Amino acid sequence: MSDVVWVNGTLRGAEDHAISPLDHGFTVGDGVFETMEAVDGVAFALTRHLLRLEYSASRMGLTGLDTAHVRKGVLAVLAEGGEAMTRVRVTVSSGSGPHSSIRGNAAPTVVVVAADSPPIKECRAVRAPWKRNERSPIAGVKSTSYGENVVMVQFARAKGADEALIANTHGHLCEGTGSNVFIERGGELLTPPLASGCLPGITRGLALEWGAHAGLPVRVAAPGELEMAVLDEVAAGDAFAAVTSSTRHVQPLAALDGKDLKAGPLLSRLAEEFDRRASNDPDPAPPRDL
Ligand SMILES: Cc1ncc(COP(=O)(O)O)c(C=O)c1O
Fold it and tell me: The domain spanning residue 54 has which CATH number?
C-alpha cells in the first residue's frame, strides 16, 4: 500500500506537492521529527513520542508546535491506512524561510506519514570512523539535520551492514545512527548516559524502566564508564551488545565489523521483557523527565 500523507491538517496524495520549496526544513534541515511503530492501527508510545517532539522543538527554539494537532494527524493517517500500517513518521519544520540559516516567521509545517515498512529483522553493525559531538547545540535532539547519520549509515551499508555505532569526542560509546546501544558486561546491562550526546530514545527509556521492573541488572552507565573500546570485548565474545529503537525494539547485534556474534543472555531477556510489556501497553505513561 502506498504511504498515507497528512500535511497541515489535510490528507494528501503521497506525491502531492504540498510543501513550499522555501520550507526551512527542506532548505537547511530546520525541523524536528519522530518515528513510531504502528501495531494493529495504533501508534506505539504516542504520548512519549509527542513529549519528545516538544523537547526537540524547544531545544531547537522552534515555537508554535501544537502536539494535539500532531496527535490528530497521527490518528488520521492510521484511520485512513488501517492495520496494514507499521510505521508513522511526524516531521515538523519552521515553515517557509529565507535562503540563509536565519529562520523566518512562518507557521510550522506539520507532516505525518503512515507507511507499511517491513520490520528490521536483525542488526549487523560496524564501528563508524567519525565522532558524535556531545557539545553540539543539537546533541540529543531528533532534528531533521540528520546528514551525519545519512553518511554514516551509507558507510555501514557499503560494508554489508545496516547500522554504524558511534563514539563521542571523548572516545566514549554514544549511540548508533538510528538507535541507542546497550552493553552486557560482567553480569550487568549498561547504556551510555545522555551526557554522551545520545538521543533520549523512547525504547532506551522503556527498556531501562521495564528491565529494572523485571529485576534485570540494567542501568545508565556513568560518564566515561563505557569506552568505545568495549566493542573490542564484544567482538571477542567477552561482552555483548544490542541496539534499541522504535523500529528495532531491543535487538542484540548479529554482527560487528563483519564478525558474527551471539546474543547475550541478559540482553535476550531484556528483549523478551520489552516485547511482552509493549504488547500489553501500547501507550506507556510518560516518565517524569526525558
Ligand atoms: C540517533 C538516534 N538515536 C537513537 C534512536 C532511538 O530512539 P527511539 O527508541 O526513540 O526510536 C534514534 C531513532 O531513530 C536515533 O535517530
Answer: 3.30.470.10
